[in-house]
Amino acid sequence: MKPAKSNRSMKSLLEILFVSTRLGLTSFGGPTAHLGYFHEEYVRRKKWMDEKSYADLVALAQFLPGPASSQVGIGIGVMRAGVIGGIISFLGFTLPSVIALILFAGLLTTTDIGNAGWIHGLKLVAVAVVAHAIIGMAKNLTPDATRKTIALFALIGTLLWQSAWTQVGVILLAALVGFLLFKQQESTEPAKSTFPITKRVSAICLVLFAGLLVLLPILRELTGSVWVAMIDSFYRSGSLVFGGGHVVLPLLEQEFVPTGWISEESFLAGYGATQAVPGPLFTFAAYIGTVMKGWQGGLVATFAVFLPAFLLILGALPFWDQLRNNPEVKGAIMGVNAAVIGILIAALYTPIWTSSVLQPTDFALAAVLFTMLAYWKLSPWMVVVAGAVGGMVLSYL
Fold it and tell me: Which of 310, 329, 364 is the last residue of a domain?
């Protein structure tokens, strides 16, 4: 029995590695688009989890600081194959863009690809992916007028007050409204997910998260080590980000540009590179670390900036199932899930739509890409390739 179980585990890990790496190579468009890719692959195609479990996992990631899409990917890996599954899911999704940005670090300061047609095409792919994901999720998360209204106000609030804390405030307010409006409603069946880690391990992760946040600045002062200072800056930036991967960029600029560790020109060049590669925006840290300390610095920076997200999602997952099945919490989660739809629609408009659909031909290509994904049921990577080729064609028109 043990060899059979071991073979099943190895098969699951290899499957996670294959799927997450494919997503890491094709998931362009930022964190909101990533959630769309995840939904398409893990929920619709692989059926590794149901709609509600996915929505609840997204809601949890929205509550936690850090890169929401990466935390969702880690959570799916953990639910599929334990902590090792979470690590492999993270590595598959993250390493392609890390490697690309480490290579770009020595090239992009002298090469301008920010206005390349294929990059613009990839932005239009993000429009199609996010729109498709929103339509699918909205059917389940906003089935009635009350939750549609919550989504509407979340949309309005997120658009009118665009700050790092707006999304957190919208989610908390939606949780309160949902608690008051839906607390008497019973779910048809209790949600149950498998988290193959103990609450003791999760508690250790939470303590380690807080401990490093306090101890790293102290070690930085005591040692005077550049490496410790790097780890402290990247770890703190990764710990304090609310509102998605875009928010980490100004935090990193504040940490590294005024200190002279990286020039403003190099920083902006890396920002352009980050928009051009797939995967999480947090991998921008790999570019900065490489500029500072070579490829070793890129790997250390990546580890430090993502470590808080990993510790938080591992620390929260085992308690999440218990919370979402609590009658007093279910209503709050219903409100949060509805607000997530509004937040996703706001993100679809800005920055995705406003930076991508600039003329009628852009809208036409986005419509074709959406049709390929939603109605022709083509694989996401095919849509990505079509978007890149279409963007190049449009650049010559």
Answer: 310
Q: 272, 114 in Cβ contact below 8 A?
A: yes
Do residues 293 and 171 share a domain? no
pLDDT value of position 189:
54
Residue 193 included in any domain = no
Does residue 173 lie within any of the structural domains?
Answer: yes
d(CA 96, CA 99): 5
Separation CA 18–CA 4 (nearest Å)? 21
This model's pTM is above 0.85: no
Q: Residue 335 and residue 62: Cα distance in Å, rounded?
A: 13
Task: Among 259, 294, 310, give the residue marking a domain's end.
Answer: 310
- Identify whether 158 is part of a domain: yes
In this predicted structure, the answer to whether residue 87 has a pLDDT above a threshold of 80 is yes
Half-sphere exposure of 303 (CA within 13 A, CB side): 10
Report the distance separating Cα 278 and Cα 3, nearest Å: 37
Prior bond to 65 cis, omega within 30? Answer: no
The mean pLDDT of 248-268, rounded to a whole number, is 76
Structural domain of 368 = 11-186+318-391
Q: Where are the alpha helices (DSSP H) in 261-379?
A: 264-276, 284-324, 327-347, 354-356, 360-374
* Cis peptide upstream of residue 351 (ω within 30 degrees of 0): yes
Q: Is 84 among the domain residues?
A: yes
Q: Which two tokens stand for residue 354?
A: 């406003």
CA gap 191, 242 in Å, rounded: 27
Amino acid identity for residue 63 in this structure = F
